[in-house]
Structures are given as structure tokens and as C-alpha cells.
Amino acid sequence: MKKKYLDIxxxxxxxxxxxxxxxxxxxxxxxEMVKEYQASRETIRKALNLLAQNGYIQKIRGKGSMVLNTxxxxxxxxxxxxxxxxxxxxxxxxxxxxxxxxxxxxxxxIKKELQLEEGDLxxxxxxxxxxxxxxxxxxxxxxxxxxxxxxxxDICRDSIYQYLEKELNLNISFAKxxxxxxxxxxxxRSLLDLDGFQNVxxxxxxxxxxxxxxxxxxxxxxxxxxxxxxxxxxxxxx
Amino acid sequence: MKKKYLDIxxxxxxxxxxxxxxxxxxxxxxxEMVKEYQASRETIRKALNLLAQNGYIQKIRGKGSMVLNTxxxxxxxxxxxxxxxxxxxxxxxxxxxxxxxxxxxxxxxIKKELQLEEGDLxxxxxxxxxxxxxxxxxxxxxxxxxxxxxxxxDICRDSIYQYLEKELNLNISFAKxxxxxxxxxxxxRSLLDLDGFQNVxxxxxxxxxxxxxxxxxxxxxxxxxxxxxxxxxxxxxx
DNA sequence: CAGTGGTCTAGACCACCTC
DNA sequence: AGGTGGTCTAGACCACTGA
Lengths: 238, 238
Fold this sequence. Notes:
2 copies of one chain form a homodimer.
Chain A lengths: L3 H14 L12 H8 L3 H13 L3 E4 L3 E4 L15 H5 L7 E11 L2 H6 L7 E11 L2 E11 L8 H5 L2 H8 L4 E11 L3 H6 L8 E10 L4 E9 L6 E6 L4
Antiparallel strand pairs in A: 1-2, 3-4, 4-5, 5-8, 6-7, 7-8
Helix pairs in contact in A: 1-3
Chain A binds a DNA duplex (19 and 19 nucleotides) through helix 3.
Organism (chains A, B): Bacillus infantis NRRL B-14911
Protein name (chains A, B): Trehalose operon repressor
Pfam families (chains A, B): GntR, UTRA
């Protein structure tokens, strides 16, 4: 199934990212794009709305679609991105250390978080992320065994998300996240280079598949000086 | 200008929030809604897409639109919400203290952040937010005088956003934000009840109007134990 | 198979901006 | 007045689900 509006969106995204279309200038009008892309106006508008949602353009009535400046806006923890995808956009390559991988019956806490039944099994994955020689992030993932029957150390050291989407064809769809600041646990102190920091930033996520079933609960614990979260937000319509 | 898809969206939102439509159940099909709301299917779909973006429903092909559980998901720092709007959803009423309000020529730092010209004026607003008797948040707002010619202490103590949107009819459209953790400044220590915390959480925002012009730069500094950010994120299409 | 949501179209009317 | 984006429509075909 090829989606025309996605093609158009990617085409324009590419032109903006490469600098062929400059910030503060206007895109061709929707009617011009209708001819250029051989698509109906609604299809063009679908593509443009995607760009607007992601902060690439601002549509201004009576004038046109202005390209926004997206530089300095390059660390998309926002959205739903795995560490490997994120790392690909960083200057220096990070490193993943697998500290633990086990499959077992869900305990009380995690059984509740993943809404599991009595006797359901869960994977417990513990990984450290190293950047610039220092252990900066501690990730603990819980994955429901009924959705992910098989998991290996190699997959965890590479990218779990890649495996789930490419191999298992799971459709990761949305997540609810919360960011808070906590005191370091003993585990944080032993597995991270905390350098005397009194706090860690904790991101807790519940991740859902296309059919709205919950399959993953993650806790990502960051050294505060290396933590940065950026977001593009549109004001809700009223 | 009445927008049918917004009416439909609000109608369904209201039914979900009030509990008349329960989580884990399906909405009527799009074709049924076409009759119910006397609208075309594309208009219905526009409304449903808004609901999906905001985490109210999950659309599942071949099955329907499932209502998601939105409880425990109640602190929308995400999106673009002013403190007053946020406070309205909290149990206990918070309090705003105005620590400073001045209009002056833009200095080097803020001139750059707000992309101002030589001689442009900016408002500098400093406010403390008190919750449960403790001073928890320190907000510093810079607003370009060319967009906001007039500002008073009463407006700052109430809600700047309300004034901008209701009185000045400014259309606040989008913001770029960043969240990081810093050491407290002397100002933080004197104006907040830091209780010995070694860090503050800082949210920096650049806020833009409908015509893509930058009009506000804000720094919001939070005591870490009272900070919480929640987010609903959909995975980017590929 | 019928029903669901996903994509696409061609055309209409409106509100806004600019000249 | 002419061009821009914003809303809405009626209809078509497709892909997926479940009985």
C-alpha cells in the first residue's frame, strides 16, 4: 500500500532538512502542489498537516505555508524514539551494556503496570547506556511474553525496537510517558557514573501496539547533567 | 465561523471525560456517525483524528475506534497550557506572587532569544507560584513590546495568556520547549523554598503566534520533587 | 461475506491577505 | 479582485477484521 500523502510529506521534509528550501520562505501554494505532485488538494493538505504537526512549517491563512527554522531543535526525545534511533543522530557513537536479561513470572508491581493475568510471563531487560566513556543512562524494560515470545542478548545489545518492528512485525503505536526527578537507588549508584549527583531524571513509559494492547513498561534513568528533553507543541484548538 | 469537526470532537470528548462512553469500548462506526451528526465521512474522520492525536481513542482498522483509558493521565504540562489553565485542574488552588514587572530595552541575551532589533523593548515579568504554602515554581517571562504594548501587575497576577488571547486577540500557535536540570541560582534560592534540593528543573520555551512570529521567551524553574511532566506520543509514521 | 477504517478525488464555498 | 489556506461534501476504491 503506497501512501501518496506520505511520499509528498517525505519529499518536502527532505527538501527542508537538506536546506534546499530555506526557513522563513514559503512553500509553493497548495494549488501549485496539486499540479506538481499530481494529487488532489486534500491529499496535499494531508501532507502539509503532517509537516505542521512536526514543526516543519506554519500554515498562514491568506499567505501560504512558511518553513520554520528547525535547527537547534535536534534532540527528539519527544515522540516515540528508541535509543538506537536517537543515537544515530548524535555526533559520537554511544555504547549499550547489557546488565541483565531474564524471563519470569510477573511480580506484583509489574503485573499491575502491564495489566497481566496470573501466571503471565515477562521479560526483564536491564541495560546501561554509555556516552563519552561514562555510564549515563540506565534502562529497565519489561516486555509481556505473550507479545514477545523470544528475546536474546544480541537483540538487546542492538535494538529491541528494530527487532520487534522488522522481525516480529509488531506495530508500535503510542506511549504514555511521565518525567520526574528522583533520588538515586542503590542500583543507580552501582551501575551509573553518578559523580556525586543527588538526583536522577526518570522517564516512565507505557507503550502500546496498534490494537491498543499494552506490551511494554520502561523506566529510563538519566544522570541529570546529561538529560535534555525537547518538544514541539501546538496550542490546543478551542 | 463554526467548525463542524470541532463540535463533533468536543461532543465525543465530553462523552468520554464524563464517563458516558467507557474505556475499552468502541465508538459508533464512522458511517453511523455520518447519520448521527449529519456530516460527511471526511468531517467525522477529521474529528476522530483529533481525538486520536490527543490520546482519547485508538483507531483500529477493520474493528473500530476504541476509547482509551485516560485516567492517571491528568497532568497535561504537555501541549501548550498556561499556569492558570493548569491550576484549574488541580485539587488545591495555587497562588501567584508577582516579584517584578518592568519594561526596558532588550539586553544582549534576551535580544538574541527573541530575535529583536536594536532599541526594541521587552517586558520582563518575574512570578513565583505557591502550592500548599510553599514557593515551588519561579517563572520568568520576556514578552516583546511590539506584540504586547501594555501590561499591568493585575494581569500578571491573574493570567497573561488569558489577557493576550481574550483582550489582545493574539493567536498563540506553537512553542518549542526544552527541559533540563540545572543548579539553583541565587535568585532560585531566595525566591523558592528549595529545602536543600541541589537541583531545579528548568523549562525554556519559545512561543510563537499564528503568523510564525516569536513573541515570548519563558524560563520556568521548578523544585524537583514537585515537578512532573506527562506526555502522550504517537510513533512517527515511516 | 459484510462491516470497519484508510486513502484519494473533484468540486464547492468561505475567510483572510495583498494589491 | 485574485490568490491563499480552511472547511465540507459525496463518492470511489482499498485493506483489514470477524463471523
